[in-house]
Amino acid sequence: xxxSTFPKxxxxxxxxxxxxxxxxxxxxxxxxxxxxxxxxxxxxxxxDVLPIFMGNCSSCHNQQSRFVYNWLDYKTAYGDxxxxxxRIWDSWQGTYYKEAMPIANSPESLTLTDEQRxxxxxxxxxxxxxxxxxxxxxxxxxxxxxxxxRKLFSSICAACHQPTGQGRPNIFPPLAGSxxxxxxxxxxxxxxxxxxxxxxxxxxxxxxxxxPSFPLNDGDIANVLTFVYNSFGNSGLEVKPEEVKAVRARPxxxxxxPTPAASTPKSAFE
Length: 270
Prior knowledge:
Layout: H1 5-15, H2 18-36, H3 45-56, H4 74-79, H5 81-90, H6 107-111, H7 114-125, H8 142-161, H9 179-183, H10 185-194, E1 199-202, E2 205-208, H11 218-229, H12 241-249
Antiparallel strand pairs: 1-2
């Protein structure tokens, strides 16, 4: 910069009012904070990606699927990660010729946010780390369990059963005021653990669809069921992790076709 320009800069600063100088100082401080702020942690599968897959992809990509990959399994998702990125990000951006996933205009696609797509993109590009799921910090009150269950329900269950719990006619049964749900707490726990296939009658209506099993731990299942039982006009029951553990330990009835998870996974949500 030429020496002659300095007097001009000094004169320009001198003409600024106090407010303008304060604004400049604010910009400088914000810039310094941004430069010194710790970098956001890279997305990991257990903490960030698995909840998205469970809420938006599990109706197809689950352990019962025969023709598509099970993205609820880390090794499988990791092996397929670049195709996942292409389908969820590149196709959505119009730069990949195969169909975007989830399928356009499907309930899962409509609930998948831009931010969630970016998380999956970044997870792939930054190495596809498995990570460590946050652990529970001890026993919860019923109120705490309901609130944690609300978050789980919103991220996993609402795409099929709807945020209102009303389900989807002839496809997914309602949870709101459900006679099937309220009649047997242990059965409800088993369904969340192991999934369910085949016909079911809820509030007098027949439904015949598949619900996959989810890699949720005992606390997660207790929380989400406690939320459901205390919402949508249901019975107000509380489900505790000890009850889920007891149901998980029981042999599956011969006519129960879903395959339960082999072990209790760590929580990705607590």
